[in-house]
Every structure is written in structure tokens, then in C-alpha cells.
Amino acid sequence: MTNKAVKGLLHPLFPVLIFLVFLATASGLKYGIEKQDRNQIQSSLDNEAQAMAANLEREFLVHLEAIRRMAQRFEASPGMSEETWSRDARNYLSDFGVYQAIEWIDRDFVIRWLEPLSGNEEVVGFNVAINPERRQALEQAQASGEIDISGVLNLRQGGQGLVIYVPVYAGADNKGFIAGVFQMETLARHLLTSRVLDAFRIRITDSGKLAYELNTSSETAPAFSHTTPVALPTLDWALTVTPSAAWVESQRSVWPLATFISVLFMGILTSLTTLLVQLILKRNQALLKTRRELESEIDQRKAVQQDLARLESTDALTGLANRRFFMEDLTHTLNIADRQMRQVALVMMDLDRFQMLNDSLGHQFGDELLIKVSERLNGLSNEKVLVAYSGGDEFMVCQQHVDDLDDVINLLGQIKQIFAEPFEVQGDAHSVTATMGIAVYPQSGLDADTLLRNADVALYRAKDQGRNTYQFYTEGMQDREVMRLELDKDLSQALANDEFVLYFQPQVELESAEIHSVEALIRWQHPRRGLLPPVEFIPLAEESGRITEIGRWVVMAACRQLARWQGTDFEHLRIAVNLSGRELDDESLVDHIREALESNNVPPSRLEVELTEEIFIQNIEHNRDQLSKLHKLGVQLAIDDFGVGYSSLGYLRDFPVDLLKIDRSFITEVTERHDDAVITRAVINLAHNLGIRVVAEGVETMEQLVFLKSHRCDFAQGYLISRPVPAAALEKALSEGSMITDTPVRSGL
Ligand code: C2E
Ligand code: CA
Ligand code: CA
To answer: Which CATH class is domain 77-191?
Structure first.
């Protein structure tokens, strides 16, 4: 069905239209049936009228015949006495009750004999030729011998009636007439049954003029009437029958009304049904519409949910999968790997020094750097590798198909490659490295949470070893991790319990073989674990931020030591303290150092500060500021571990540096490896050119000492001369002069 048709069918006027069609049909049918009914009534009426006329004719003729026979008998016995005639007439009257009277009228039209006589005496002698027309009709009858019938006239005996005149002999022999008088009423009564009389008004016209009217009282239905001629001798009669309203009603069929009502009823039913169907259809349409709307809403919801799911699984900042999704996916991956007997590698990754970058260059910078790193890491993503951002500076990579460890090493290589190029953030290029911890399923954990925890443990181990490296999880790590956490807890108590100690390692001046300064190296006298080297707790303290407090303690302890040495043989000694990069962030660092010096009444030139190259990389302005203040104060500045970091030698020029400490890694093989020798020589020369003096760290052999001395290195520090020792041991060794401070042969000079 077309839409238009449906609309039409649903139009509110449609049921009305149906009703009107039925109404019209009902009316038409009613009209048709009524018409037929009327015809039926009319024809019934016709039949009735014709039957009446026929009856009238027949009766009339019977009576006429009776009168005629009387006339014949009178003719046959010319001398009939009045008495005989009267007897004969009485017989007739009793046989034919319709007659009111039978008369003999002489040829002069005068009534002579009459039966019954009683009550009619005055009629005898009456001349019936009451007017010229009557006379003419009677004379004509005398002449022809044919009967004559008077019209309806007022009878001498009273009432209206008819008189039939039968001539006795024709022509000159005429002996008058035998006449039968009967009243119309009687005739009518006789002719018409009571049923007929009740039902019809009957008019008898004689030559068109109303001669007699029967039953005028009853109400008639003028729409129906039938006029039929009555064939009577000499009379020009017609019978007009008009039915009473009651008769018409009785004839009327119930069909027109019944049909009308039933069709109308059907119409109403059909309209109502249509209305109902319309309502149902409309309701249906409304339901369909609602359903469609619901469906579209559901679709929209689904789309929104999908969006949400995507959002929920993705980190908003980096666009990488988030931790939650990563963990769900990992669980799923492990299930599959279990079935396929495959390995899965989970790599936890930390950006080195991100916290420092973020703190010093701002969160905006941090966010941009994270986005840049994420973009590159995302390049690793494929159907077998999922990269996720877990928050902070931490990323996670899941390698889902690992056949052997080479696959993981290969992935780690790819990651390292990602950090090879510096990242362009806020217009500057920044070199960033990452440290990674790896846990491999199933050997490093059987479920996602365990794998994650162990990868984290491995990551911390990797950080402990220095940055920009990776570490696979191994069995023993778990214990170390527990230890680490415990240590962190203990560390919070260490200062209050005064558990830290400073050891001192001397630096010998190669030129003079004298010791002018010592490096203070912290130790933790742990109540249960014994003496712990800084590598066990300094990184931890840096991580937790406790390093600031520890740094202050070190400075204070060094100053106290210097104060103690004042006025002794060791009052010329300078102490070098190590400061980590984070300590430099502390604005009150310089103030604190000054206070420590002043409170112990120690000249600033007695104190030296060692910082690693990282201060050249981040927060340069601030760091230079801090160092300038320190320098102004009179504190000596040394760059520690020189050569391993991000050496941009140009910075040496910009910073107020007094000393350079060449990292132990160059010294260890300086006499064996040409490269290391070249670098060491170059650094010494460069530093000297900038007016900076050079310390060689980790000197363990005499060969190294000879090499350094021959290349004009200013100071040497290392186990060869002395291990880091407590102050008392240092003092003792210095007093005894038991340390190796010089080369047996004057080298090269
Ligand atoms: P560093 O400043 O490079 O200190 C020198 C480290 O090398 C010391 O380790 C020392 O024992 C070791 N060493 C010296 N000579 C030799 C040698 O000939 N051979 C070898 N193999 N090692 C030698 P230590 O005392 O374990 O200190 C490790 C690091 O801990 C230090 O490296 C320094 O970065 C940090 N550190 C030590 N004390 C403090 C402190 O008070 N504050 C801060 N922030 N860091 C400290
Ligand atoms: Ca140092
Ligand atoms: Ca060092």
C-alpha cells in the first residue's frame, strides 16, 4: 500500500464516509422497497376494488334478474290479482332481502301496488316520473321493453336508493313496470363485508357525479385509491375505493424500515470497526515510531558506549592504552599464551630524570615530552605489541608472542633506538633515556599482577644500577625489593636515630704528594643490616625526597668535622661533600650551607661540593645561579663522575667550576685502553685550558698513578691511596704517613 492510501484510510473522516455510504445505501434500499411496497399496496387495493365491483355487478344482476322474472310472471298471468302479486312479491322480498320494496307501476308511471305496504301507504299513487329526464327514460323503457334503472335518488320511503324498472310488455302493450326499490345502504351492506367496510371508504359515482359515499367516518390514506367502472345496465357507475390509513399500515411491509435499519446498523458497525482499526493502526504506527525512536536511541547509546569504552581504554593525554586496559588485555593474552605454550614479555619503562624535568621545566613541558615519547613508542604497536601509558613517567609494553629471549632483546633494542634521537619540546632538543624492567611469562610470574609487580621490581633494580639500562626480573629480586621497601621505612628513622656516618677518602695532590682534601662518603649504620654503602639507600632517598634532609645532615656533619680538626694537624684539610642534582633544586641550600659553616665557625674555602654533570642539562639557569652563590660564598665546586653523562664541555666555561673529577670508568683501564688514555688526556688538557683542576677517581694501581701524574693530572683518589675510612682511621693514617701518596719513580718529567 502506498503511503497516500494509508494516510487516506487513517483520515478521521474515513469512518464518516463509510457511514454516509451505508446511509445512502440504506435510504436507497428503503426507498426502493417502499416503492415496491406501495405498488404492492396499490395492486392489493386494485384487486379489492375490482373484486368489489365484480361483486356489485354480480349481485346487482342477480337482483335484476329476480325483478325481471317477477315481471315475466306478471306478464304470463295478465289477470293476476293484487293479492297473488303481493304474495309473490313477499316471497321475493324474503328471498332477496336487499329489496326494500317491490312495486307495480302502471303505464302512467303511478305506483299502484306495493309490497310491503305497511309504513309505505302514502307511496301508493306516487308518480315516479318525477322530472322530464325520468319520464323520458321510463317512456323509452316502455317502448323498448328494456329495463331502466333510476340513479341514486331520495326515496319516498326515506334514505337513498335505487329503483329498477322492468317493463311488462313492450310498446303499446306495455302494462307498466315491476319496480324493485332498494336502499343503497342495504345494497352496500349486502355487498360489502364488514371487513371491507372497515378498511375502505367507497364512493360510487354515477356519470362522474358522486352518487353515494360509504364509510365517510374512517380516516383514509389519500395516496392510495382505485377507481374501477362498474358494468351495470343503463348505469354509468364507477367505484372509487380509498383505503383507510389503518389498512394501508396493515398492508405495509416491515422490510423497508427493517432493511434501512439493518443497513444503517451495518454502516454504524462498519464505521465503528473502521474507527477501531484506525485507532489500532494509529496506535501501531505510534508504537512503531516509538520503537524506531527507541532503536535509534539505543544505537546512539551504543555508539556513545563504544566511544566511552574507547575513552576508558585510552589515556587522554598520550592516546595510548591506559593501565586498566593494558592489564585486562594482558590477562587475556596470558590465557592465550598458556594454551599456545608461548611466552609473553612485560616491559615496564621509566623515563630517566623525568621528575626533575617536569619539576624544573613545568608540567606543560612534561606533558609535551610525554606526548612526544608516546608518539614514538606507539610506532612499536602492532598486533603482537601493545604499548600503554601507566601514569607519571611510566610506560608499559607487552610483547604477546615471545618464542625466545632474542625476541625480547630485539624489542628492547627497538625501544632504545626510539630514545636515540633527542625529543623536540618547546623549541629545544632534549635527550631523554629510559630505564626498563622486564618480566617474562611464565618464568617471572603466572598472572598479570605478578608479572607487573616483578617487572616493577626489575625496573627498580635497573634504576639502582644507573639509568638508561634494562634489567630482567630474576628470582632473587623479590627479596631485594622487600628489603628496599623496608629500607625506605627505616630510612625515615635513620636521621632521628643518628645512624649515618661519614667516611673520608683522601685526595692526593700528585705534584706535591700531599693530601689537602678528603671526600666525605656517607654510610648508614643500619641497626640490623650493618654498615650500608650509599648505593643501597641514596637512590631510594632521591626517589622519596629524603635526600634533602640527608644532604643537610652531610653538610652539617662535614662542617662539624672541619670544626673538630681546627687547631689540630688536620686543620688544613678540605672536605668535599656529594650533592645530588635534586638537592640543588632546594632554594635554601646555599643558606643552609652558609649557616652550617658559620655555626661551626668554618671558613667556606674548607668546603667543597661535588655535583654530577646532570646539573648542566636541566634547569640550567637556576643551577648556575645556585652554583654562583656557592662560589661567591667561597665554597669550591667539583664536577663529579665527569665523562659519563651528557658532557657538553661548553658548560664548563659558563659554570664556576674549580675541579673536574674524571670518572673511574676512564681510569680503570687508562693504562690498557688507548681510547681511555686519549680521553683522559684530553679532559685534563681541556680543564687546564679553562683553569680547572683535575681529579682522577678510582685509582687502584701504581701504573694508573704514574700515568696520571705524567699527564699532569692534579689529584688522584682511589683505593691505591686509601679506601674511604672513618675520621679516626683517616687521622691515624695521616699521622702515620702510611698512605701511598707518591710514585716510586718520577715519571716522564
Ligand atoms: P662518588 O662520588 O663517585 O664516590 C666515589 C665512590 O667510588 C665511593 O663509593 C668510593 O668508595 C668509590 N671508590 C673510591 N676509590 C675507588 C677505587 O679505587 N676503586 C673503586 N672500585 N671504587 C672506589 P661509595 O662510597 O660507595 O659512594 C658511592 C656514591 O655514593 C658516590 O660516588 C656518590 O655519588 C654517592 N654518595 C656517597 N656519599 C654521598 C653523600 O653524602 N651524598 C650524596 N648525595 N651522595 C653520596
Ligand atoms: Ca664524589
Ligand atoms: Ca665520583
So the answer is: alpha beta
